[in-house]
Amino acid sequence: MSNDTNAQQTPEAEPAPETGADSNPFEAELAKARDDMLRALAEVENTRRRADRQVQEARAYAIDRFANDLLPIADTLYRAVAAAPRDDLDEGFRNLLTGVELTERQLIEAFARHGLRRVGERGEAFDPNLHQAVAQAPSDQPAGKIAEVLQPGYVLGDRTLRAAMVLVSTGQASAPGGGEPKNIDIKV
Fold this sequence. Notes:
Layout: H1 2-13, H2 15-60, H3 64-83, H4 91-113, E1 116-119, E2 131-137, E3 146-151, E4 153-156, E5 159-162, E6 164-169
Parallel strand pairs: 2-6
Antiparallel strand pairs: 1-4, 3-6, 4-5
Helix pairs in contact: 3-4
């Protein structure tokens, strides 16, 4: 019996260390496989989020090239309305001017429906993200405000399609001998 007992104990004693030695590589392999799976899941989630963000941007900015093509037309209508004489008009010219004004208004409203808006109004604060300063000059506007809009700008969502070309005010013109007007930093 002692031989049988020894024989029984020996096989039991041998598998335990063998199982323990084999389980460590399996556990390490399992841990590596689990880590790889978690990384792959995280990568899939990041890819999904990136794709969702790109789809949203594509929807929001899908019209940017088309809008850029229409900006010169809007500018032409704006200049036509601004340059038209307002006094002693005959009825035909008055009707034509009214038609041009309505066309410009409808174009601007169509732009607004699609998220495109005009920027660069007289009296606004100068913003280098929205405005391009062409010059500085004394005016009735406070320093750092837009004194004159040379060409309106347009923004689509939060992107500037075209910066407004503006004249920036340096403040009130000083009296003769009162010194130089204060310059405003307009880094672009």
